[in-house]
Amino acid sequence: MKIGVISDTHVSRMEQLPAELVYALREVDLIVHLGDYTGKGLLNDLKELGDFTGVAGNMDPLGVQEKLPGLDVLDLNGKKIGLIHGWGPPSGMRERVSEQFKGVDAILYGHTHTPDNVFIEGVLFFNPGSASGKYPAIRRTYGILSIEESIHGEIITIG
Question: Count of domains in the chain?
């Protein structure tokens, strides 16, 4: 299973995303957005693009927050995947988000705009960074998560 993971897009429509990213999302089995869409239009566009799930972020308007949970746990190919946006300063983020989940194989989170792809005590901590490069992001990135017998994450730099 191949999952396209994005976060912190800070745009309201899909046409505001890089074309390279939109093309890549058409090729995955599932699209996951980890919050800070900042527009309900993008949420609707992603749902039309393919199989989709996501969580709301701290910058999302009420219309998005009403449609999505603050956190979720998916069971994909026998692996438990926790989804959360995150909050607070970048330091200590892994610890804060890990306190929200028990018994997961991976925690996917956003908020920091900084890519992360590391296993700690058998749990993958995966942050795709910012797909639009807005705010403190230095580069535009997204993630591909592959789930088979094991989980493998890849951070991809756009353009």
Answer: 1
